[in-house]
Amino acid sequence: xxxxxxxxxxxxxxxxxxxxxxxxxxxVLGSGxxxxxxxxxxxxALPYFEIPHFAPSSVAGHAGRLVTGIVGGKQLIxxxxxxxxxxxxxxxxxxxxxxxxxxxxxxxxxxTNAAGGVNADFGAGDLMLxxxxxxxxxxxxxxxxxxxxxxxxxxxxxxxxDSGLRRLALEAAGVLGVELKQGVYLAVTGPSYETAAExxxxxxxxxxxxxxxxxxxxxYSRYLGLRTLGFSVIANMAxxxxxxxxxxxxxxxxxAAQGERIAKLIRAVASRLDSP
Length: 276
Ligand code: HPA
Prior knowledge:
This protein has helices at about 5-20, 35-40, 90-105, 165-175, 195-205, 215-225, 250-255, 260-270; strands at about 25-30, 40-45, 65-70, 75-80, 110-115, 125-135, 180-185, 210, 225-235. By secondary structure, it is α/β, with parallel strands linked by helices. A five-stranded mixed beta barrel has the order 5-8-7-6-9.
């Protein structure tokens, strides 16, 4: 695995000294979903460019900073802006923030993303609880020499999207009156959107949504032994399921409009989590 020990140590030291010493819950915010971090209590932020070895975020809709704060009495650390393979980043850049969270004591990781709807019953603006994923990125973040301090050479993906956390999320959604679809997230590298033929193929494979992120972080999170929960915001129906041309600006607008719903859900899940 490509994460260099010295790099991890330097990044962790900077975050400990300048942001927070420890946290229980990590959150990764996808495109257009940064608003959750702005609503935290006792909030503090540290831009990626002030953290050794953190790559800047080059995508519109991604702020590029770590934010800490309190929800339901628990300390959160939030990645406001993630890194993607399509930006040309390697897995070291994509995974370093997750490793930092782990080193700070995070036991539960909540990931969010914007995705295209592949299930014809979905519509733009829907929220989807990720039940599982299909990795069609053509690569795996754990390729390379295994770092035995991280996890096993051949980690199990059996309960990658933790069933207990999913139950908790569904309960919270019910109480809040937030409609939550459920489905399988299929990951591609992008940055081109899919062809209509690919979308049909993905549907036949069992996908409900398609996107360009999340799977590397979730594989790594499971490898580290974190409990993981994921939400997609259906930003648009995937190509061929709608006759609208796709635009990143439109994706960001649609997702941002759902920011408060997903923020409420994450707050409710965080509040219901037992402290370890
Ligand atoms: N495809 C892939 N990724 C996406 C999409 C899509 O339609 N919408 C938002 N992210």
